Amino acid sequence: MGEDKRELPPIPDRLPAAVVDAHTHLDACGAVTAADVTAMVDRAERAGVARVVTVADDLASARWAVDASTWDERVFAAVAVHPTRTKDFGAADKSEVERLASAERVVAVGETGLDYYWDYSPHDAQQDAFRWHIDLAKRLGKTLMIHDRDAHEDVLRILDEEGAPDTVVFHCFSGDEHIARRCLDKGYVLSFAGTVTFKNARGLHEAARLAPAGQYLAETDAPFLTPHPFRGRPNEPYCTAYTVRHLAALRGEAVHEVAQAVRTTAERVYQLPSVTTG
User: Fold this and answer.
1) Is the pTM of this model over 0.90?
2) How confident is the model at residue 3 (pLDDT cuts 50, 70, 90)?
3) What span, in angstroms and rounded, lies between the C-alpha atoms of 70 and 63?
């Protein structure tokens, strides 16, 4: 019998150094209560994933993420309205996002940016919302977490026009080595999801080799983008460990070295307390 595509992948061996899942969606993974969140991050910790950043894509999710970040000390939040949901992004929504993003355990404004793959929001509405979120991140002094799908040139142009915040993370980086070099030259941080483990993602592989320590992160974007060889099955934060090991293989570096690099970068980017144990 074949594998059940509805089943979670096995929890991998614990990484030799603790890491952070830089972008996940605990609510979309099925977490509702504080007990659900704790169970999910307990599984992550078994694999060496010591902390997670749970990310909102609408206002309901943002309220939940802010609450969830207070339920377990290993959970932090990021708040924004996803570009595909910006068609009717008005003053009341902006006020609520700003209130939520100001919470102590919200470590980034995101995910915001541009998505030209889906046709849910007009490009001009997305761009206006993106500019507003850039300004919010600067006013709050928080990291900007970018969603960029099929929109590299406009994302980079708008960042230049508005003036980027001090710290910018390209969540689930999807460009090739040429886009990666342009981002890295600007000081931006590339966050690699399970897509970097896919065999046909040659441009991503080159981007992952190019990024120096201090400018790359690992994430799951769970429940989506489960790493190879479990592509198509549900994803959870513990699967960050698979991506970290794959990044190490791509870069020709020790797993311990890559794990330390993604953790220390996450601690800097999100201003997290340091974890020094594996």
Assistant:
1) yes
2) low
3) 12
